[in-house]
Amino acid sequence: MKTKVNRKEADNIIKALEAGIVPQKGIQHLLVGRNNEVQEIISILDSIKEGESDIRFWVGDFGSGKSFMLRTIESVAIQKNFVVSTIDLTPTRRFYASDGKAKALYSEIVDNIVIKTSQNGNAINTILEEWINKILLDVSKRDEIPVSDLLKLENKNIVENEILNITSSFGSVGLSYELGQAIVKYYEGIMDNDRVLKLKSLRWIRGDIDTKTEAKKELGIDKVINDDNWYESLKNLAELFLGIGYSGFVINFDEAVNLYKLPMSRTRERNYEKILNIFNECKSNSARGLFINFGATRKTVFDEYRGMSSYGALKGRLGAERAMDSKLLNTNRTVLPLKPLIVEEIYTLLENLNEIYNIHYKQVEGMKTEHIKIYMEEQLNRPGAAEFLTPRAVIKDYLEILDLIRQNQEVDIESIIYEKFGRKSMPITKDEDNKDDEIEVF
Prior knowledge:
Distance between the termini: 44 Å
CATH architecture of the largest domain: 3-Layer(aba) Sandwich
Mean pLDDT: 87
Largest sheet: 5 strands, parallel
Strand order of the largest sheet: 2-3-4-1-5
Structural class: alpha/beta
Helix content: 40-55%
CATH topology of the largest domain: Rossmann fold
Order of helices and strands: HHEHEHHHHHHHHEHHEHHEHHHHH
Low-confidence stretches: none
Shape: globular
Strand content: 5-15%
């Protein structure tokens, strides 16, 4: 393991993996076999920092590491001072809708925002207060007015005008002026120690105010974030974050298969049309400081009947599915396959996981080199391993064996491994939790 894992990270990793989810912290300790992908991510993030934009689709089947890759992007981006939001697409959160589902997607994005100093979500208020403090310092220096005087009621307009001037200058007009108005109200809430006004401002920014009437009454703002303009508002936020001093805005959409599962063809088409719009803007740098990633199955991307490739204009931009099976490496593609880990990489992953497990449970003993080799041989010799064995399945079984070893110390470790798999290696079949290819009617 390159860097020593601390106890807090170990606890987070093991608890998450035992629950079958990707850990939010310490994920770098499980990162093996993805060096080329990580280098590409770093390169993209460096360009985003300069005000550019980009989009990527990380494609693989159930358990292949899509969610892991998105969490890796989040981890790398946070360390490079990006604002990041990682969310799951669901039947109630879509890119296009007329009943609030697109606005619900926007609200979830804002609620899941994390930064280096606030990694538990809901960091938008921290960001706003940081920016307002920055404005106070900048205005104080420019106009030679002490910060203490700027906080007085008679100078309130100076700061408010500065906020509106900055947000009105965004390249993505959208709701930039209204965003500035909401931030002004947030500033007034700080000035007047009015917690309710601050909460109302945050509700507008989060898209939680549904009607223009309410927005006008509570904040004096004429517009609201809705199903039609939510993406414009996201672009405004990306420019705001750049202006504040962050490196940019990274948004990760996992479980894109939920778009593939939408039962109505017209609804799928309108969602794919919106993704096409986002694709074009990110590739042309019409959006500034924005990096968008999708975690998707092959069918979600390449199926010409229900997937993104069913929308002609988008199909041409995603490329041919056959490129996914090429043995040649090309991380510059917009649609990137998550290649299976080779045996040596899986072995390294299990070694790291063994150390993390021991730190979590405060023990020294665990799987030794020879035991990991036996475990891998048993896994790889099972019928169906080439088709259905995934990193998720390997980790799940490995943790179960580590639990058995810890709780049955009187039993020989080899016996526990063989007991798990049976002397006649049990075949590997499609994971019963793998519903990626199943169509559900919502």
